[in-house]
Amino acid sequence: MNIVFSDVDGTFQDFGQTVPPINLAAVRALHDQGDHFVFVTGRGYELAQELLTTTNLPCDIIFGNGAGIKLENEEPRLRNCLDHQVCLELLARLESENTFYFIHTDQGVFVNTITRYHTHFEDLHVKFEAELGTIGAEIMDYKEVYFTKECHNVLSVLTFIQEHPELNIIKIELMEADDLQKESLRDKLAIEGAYIFESYQQTLEVVNPLATKGAAILSYLKNFPKAKSYGFGDGENDVPMFEVVDVSVAMANANTDVKAVCMEQAGECAAGGLGTYIFDHLIQK
């Protein structure tokens, strides 16, 4: 049996773009021959479940970089969430730095009143467009609508989390247009009980140190000791996955550092590189 673990954004589909049809066909072909396909994503559960709903694919999801898992036909289970006191310390540091952040919980995504971040969004729009062109501008338009319309806007995320200790905190995510400031924030958020990594353009995420793709995959594979595992990804948060699978595959659009730690390479995400690789290497002729 083969088990294919795949990142979502930048691997299975470009952010905010339509999934290449060959990727959908490849997942179904794997399923039909008795193999498994598992999404391993930094997305929170709601966005991960939305992907399954829109694609109607028969597969499991490891979400929040390993903070939770949703097996097909079962309810989602959370594990390795951020400790509340660690979260409060991180939020206090973010508040002192006046950067844009939001927090993923089991009750949705919470963000400070979005009007507070007008200047941040302007800077991020400029950065995304400079780095990615028209697509970058479209991505930031999509994100801004998401933060405004689909997240819970509260007066103070820090106060809200203090008042709701019952919330399970999956991760903290922040976006910073200035590269030097982004790296400075990575250093300032480096405390015990927190693991920090870059996940997407100008984005840092903070999770429980046990909530990594690698740890989650090792746990998953305990039920399939004879399976051959493949891992597909494009970002820094995919490296722990590459370290534990039998065959690591970087997308052509991954950066040089990510490609350097992989055994093989697939084509561009936007062109259906993942699906093409699966049909070429894993589907029985």
Mean pLDDT comes to: 93
Main-sheet strand order equals 5-4-3-2-1-12-13-14
Rg is 18 Å
Q: Largest sheet, described in full?
A: 8 strands, mixed
* CATH homologous superfamily assignment of the largest domain: HAD superfamily/HAD-like
CATH class of the largest domain: Alpha Beta
Domain module count = 2
Total number of beta strands: 14
Uncertain runs: none
Which fold name corresponds to the CATH topology of the largest domain? Rossmann fold
Structural class, judged by helices and strands?
alpha/beta
Concise description?
The protein is an alpha/beta fold.
Name some characteristics of this structure:
eight-stranded mixed β-sheet, Rossmann fold, alpha/beta, single chain, six-stranded mixed β-sheet, Hypothetical Protein, Haloacid Dehalogenase-like Hydrolase, Chain: A, domain 2, 285 residues
Word description of this protein:
Pfam families: Hydrolase_3 (PF08282). This is Cof-like hydrolase. InterPro entries: HAD-like_sf, HAD-SF_hydro_IIB, HAD_sf. The chain is an alpha/beta fold. It has helices at residues 21-32, 45-55, 84-97, 118-132, 134-150, 157-163, 179-188, 213-221, 239-242, 256-260, 273-281, and strands at residues 2-6, 36-40, 60-63, 68-70, 77-78, 100-105, 108-112, 152-154, 169-175, 195-200, 203-207, 228-233, 247-250, 264-265. It folds into 2 domains: 2-80 and 211-281, HAD superfamily/HAD-like (Rossmann fold, 3-Layer(aba) Sandwich), CATH 3.40.50; 84-207, Hypothetical Protein, Haloacid Dehalogenase-like Hydrolase, Chain: A, domain 2, CATH 3.30.1240. The protein has 11 helices and 14 strands. β3 and β4 form a beta hairpin. The protein is globular, with a radius of gyration of 18 Å. The chain starts with a strand and ends with a helix.
